[in-house]
Every structure is written in structure tokens, then in C-alpha cells.
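Can't paste images in this forum, so I'm doing it all in text. The chain is below; anyone willing to post the predicted C-alpha cells underneath?
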Amino acid sequence: MIHGTWEPAPATRWEDAFLTGNGRHGGLVYGDPDDDRVIVTHHTLVRPNNTPADTAPPRLAAALPALQDALLAGDTTAAERFTDGRPLRWVRPFHPAFQTRVRRPPRDPGQAVHRSVDFTTGVVSGRCGKRRGEVFVSRADDVLVQYVCEPGPVVEIDLDHRLPGVPADLGTGRGIATAGRETVLTLRVRYPESPHGYTGLTLVLADAGRTTVTASGVRIEGARHLLLLTRVRRDEGGGTTVVEREAEDLRALLGSPASLPAGYAALVARHTALHGPAYGRVALDLGGDATARALPGSALLGRPDSAALLERLFAAGRYHLLSSSGLLPPRLTGLWTGDWNTAWSGAFTTDANLNLQTSSAVAADLPEVTQAHRALVEGQLADWRDNAREIFGARGIVAPAHTDGASGHSYHFSREYPLHLWTAGADWLLVPLLAHEEASGRRDQRVTAILTELARFYEDFLNRTGPDGRIVIVPSYSPENRPRGGSWGAVDATMDIAAARHALRSAADRAPAPDAPRLRALADRLPPYRVNDEGALAEWARPGLRDRYDHRHLSHLYPVWPLDEINPYDTPDLARAAHRALELRGSENDSAHGHLHHGLVAARLGDAARTGDALARVLAGDYFHDSLMSAHYPGRDVYNADASHTLPALLIEALVQSTPARLVLLPAPPAACPRGRLTGVRTRFGARVDLTWSPGEYRAVLRPDRDATVELRSPAGATRLVLRAGEERVVSS
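Text version of the structure:
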């Protein structure tokens, strides 16, 4: 089994529940035949935790010139006082809505349980004796669908908000309306000390039997099939947002089916028509052993050297990334959580985590992810303008390092994490949108407009120069590290230099004639990168700021990955310095994102051994739950999507890389992947690539959708490829 996973027992922890989602609603499915629970989530569910005044960006622009003067004069701790005095404010935390429960008398202990998830359809299934259940979240109809066959003589169904960490003073109200074989269950929730909340609605349909009302739901006797359709709606105004019309909408999804099985089949068909093709565009086959492929996921995770494990994790990562992307891109937990106390608010961290999770979107041909990413960016531009104006006294935009998905204000910062000083975020968030344009061959005027605003910020902000006439970036911050010999807020962080240069040059490429030369000239005045005394690319270009190597972030290697500014082909000296920096970098607390980020940079630098080592650390570190969703730390500590969503990107980068003018085949294949087939990879010059390889051999089939001339780099050397739209091209060793 490559395109799915299974377990021989129900989940006992929500972290092990199988996942389904459509980028709006999510479901965590336990697969317990006695108490069939599905935790329902929605991207919009974030709990109010601050007043509007607390979540505004700090008004510090008037004090900025004094801070710049102090830092340039050598006061290395000056930025620690650049604050409005507020304590650290976390963004609004993501939380689950409730769980649907279908309870029945205990099963015969001898009956086997089999639960599975099919990545090609997004359907989670469970079997125990005659009882069978299926759950999915429809991409076509935006509804969580739960279908139960042979539920037993008696079942009880309700909506249960009592999940771990639920506030004791959460306000709840229930509604139960039943007529014949149809029931509408509603759960209205109000946050403590807030007019806001959300409403959940489940339409329960039975094909036979008798329905009676219980204290919290309904009891159904004698049904052969049950169908539950569930939606959640956030309420921002204090009134009921899910009304009778919502129930009518759910009824309308079924039309007038001849039977519940027929109605369910129609729902599945509409969903899989969208989900299936998206999931199937890219696939990886490493020739895994058939016996290993047949193992349940929990057993396969005990074989970290197995090709079958890599195949399944690649497939699971693709599935989870697609399923969590729609209204918004994936959060730190994707689209899922079973706990109200989600680590780091279950938010979007944009100084590494979100960027890593979505890094395969273009190459792995998931425009659904790119569109969700664009929605996050476009929805926050007004707040980004506030950040630029209030903190830096500048036009343009500054993205926050931490956001709940609604507010884009920079208000999550402290002395040790002066995230309000970070100016590189908008550029990093635009990288996948620019790569999507390159792959499609079509420029988006919306992206151009955002780049123009970002360039305006840099024109206003980059107003200090050194004795040599070069720009000095002050203040500057390298997430989430600090230099030896300095403090967190510093001068000329390498990442800030790279982001400013990339943004200005990208904007200049699209700017009208009078503006383009000015933007390029500003980019050219940015400081050069510095190579330190140990031969490594320094994290701060400012002399005197020494590197602190044992850290999980690799912000200073931003010009290597995700940018292509430093690479072994065009800038070999800087590439060697970047490689030395990678060699010296520690792993600090073994965060999964740190290992995979390390591997992505190593792959760009052509270091197969280091790429493979980063991959092996994640595979052997017990980072994956039985659901094949991942954890932030070893030992399955802290539910987190970084490893799950980033692993496919690492494998693709190790096997196929592209720029608008270059294709690199097998740049850094890990030893764990001596042979295989990777199909459907999308390049940034408009061709799709199918690659087959084995020791000493490779064969790549290119299918371009437009004319292109690119440099080919492969184990056979370098050559020039001339591609014609619609003409298949084969290269091989």
C-alpha cells in the first residue's frame, strides 16, 4: 500500500486518528466501532484572547531613527528597548469544534477492527464484523460526510464539545429537531467573555427504524444505513449563523436519491472528481518490498530504512498537504487538532514553518496549495501596510512572523523574539507565488502589485549607508537566532539582505521603465555576503557579529534555498561557504523543521550524504504518529505538520530541481533511494518531468507546454536543451 495506510485497531489518541479535509473543514477519525468519534475542525476557528488594542502593531516609527543611530554606534542591546512595553501576546489559538459520536453496545471482543485511509479519495474507512463506516470531507460540497452501514440494533448520536482543554466556562446550547427518519442536531458555542462563537449542524438521515430524542441527541433503532452531514460556521457577530437554510442546503446536496447508499455514492463521486486528480498528479515509487508495503503504518514506522516507508510518507505528506489547503494554507497542525491548548496557538509561523510546509506546492503540482497560500497573503495586505507604517514609518508592506490567519498585524514579539523587527517575511511568502508564475508562464497582476508595495517599503526603509556608500540594514533580525557579540536585534542579517535584494530585483523586472533602474540600483547597493574566519557564509554580514551555530533555523542560507542566488553552478565560491555554514550548523532541540530545512539546503548544494542524513534523522527519530501526521520533536512530542508536509519537498529537491533556465537531475539522491520512479514533477520552465533512475542510469521524459531553452545538469555532465511546446523529449544516461 503506497497510496494509503491502515491500522488493526481504533485510535486511542486523537493524534493517531486518521485525517480527512478539504482545506476548510477537517475531520479526525478514530475508527472505534463502539464509539465512532470524528473530531470536526474548521480553519476559521480561533479563540479570542486579546483586545483590539493588544493586537495592533506597536507604534514605534518615531523612535526608529534613534534605534538606528544606537545600533550603528555599537550599542548592541539597543533593540531590546525598542518596544511599546506590552507583554508577549500570542495570536488567537486554533481549536477543535466538537466531535460527532455514533455509539452502540460493545462489540464482541473477538471481532477484528480494520481502519484505513485512501489517499486517492480522501475517504477514511472502518470495518468490524458487519459494521462498516466511511468518512470524508467533500471538496465539492464543503461538508463532512459520515456514512454507516449496519450500525446495529440501537445507536445513539450526538455532538460532543467536551474535548481536552475545553474552557470550563464555554457557553453551549443544543438543538434537536427530528421528523420521521431525519434529525437536525445543532450545537451553538460562545467563547468565554465574548459575543463570538460558532455553530455546528449535523443532518442525520436513517433509511429505516425509529428515532427518539435523548438528553443530548437521538437514539435510532433498526436502521440499516445512516448518513451524517456536518458543517461548522464561525459567528463573528453574536447572532446565529447556522439557521434553517443551512439544513436545507444539506438536504439539497442529496437531491432525491433512490436510497441512502445512492445518495452517499453521489456525494463521493462529486468529491473524488476534484480530490483524486489533484492528489494523483505526482507520485513516487521506490520499489518498496511488497511485504513491507502491506504493513500497517505503525509497524512500517518501525522500519526507518524501508523504501516502503519513504513511499508511504511521501504519499501521506502530499495527501495531508492537499487536504489542509483551501480557505487557507496549512497551519502548524495542518487543519487538525483535538485539543483546545494547541501548541504555539496552532497558528501560521512564517519565518520557516509555513514556508517549509508549502515548499513542494509548485514542483509537486498542487496549485490548490498555492491558491490557499495566495489567499492568506491577499487577505492580510491591509494589516501588512499598518505594520510598515506604525513600526518603520514606511510605505509598503511588512509581513508578521506569526499570524492566526485573520489578523496580519505584527504583535507577537518579545525581547528574546523581536519578531516585529523582521522585514524578510513578505519576500519569503511571495516566493511560491513567483515560482507558480514561472511554472505556468503567466504573470499575475496581483503578485506584481504586491511586489510593487514591497519595493516601496524597501525604498523607504533602506535609508542608512555605511562609509563605503553601501546600504546598511538596521535594525535587522535573523529568525530566531542572535549573534555572539550582539543581541537579537542587530545589523545586516544575511537573510534580510537576500530578501531585500530578491524583492527589489523581482519588482524591477516588472516595473515601468522609469522605476526599474532605480530599484536595481538600490538592490546593487545592498551589502555583499560575508565569509567568516571559519570559511562559512556568515549569518550577519556586519563585521564583529559572530555566528551562533547550534540553532534550529537556517535563515542565513535563504539565498541557497528557497532562492537560487547561491548555487554550485553560478556562484561556486559562495556555495562552498554556504556548505561550510551547513557543516557547522547544529540541530539544537531536534525540531523536525530544522532537520528538513537542513536537508533542503544540502540538496540545493548537491550534498547527497547530508541530504540523506537529514532524512534519516527524521525517519529514525520517532516523529510520526500512527496517522502519519508528524510531531515537532522526537518521540512524537507536540503534534505538528512540518515533517509530514515538508518530506515530499525534500525528496523532490534531491531528485529533480529546476529554475526558469536550468534543470538538475539527481542532484543529491539519498542512499536510501538507489532506484525509483518520480512522475509528474512540474518545472519552473514549463515542462513536466517523469524520472526513472537506478545505480549508474537515469531516464527523464520531459513534456513541455511552451518553448524553452535550458541548461541540463545531470550525472552525465552539463548540456543545453532546446524544448518545443507539445514535443516530448527524452534524456538518459
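Residues 260-279 form the longest helix (20 residues). The longest strand covers residues 225-235.
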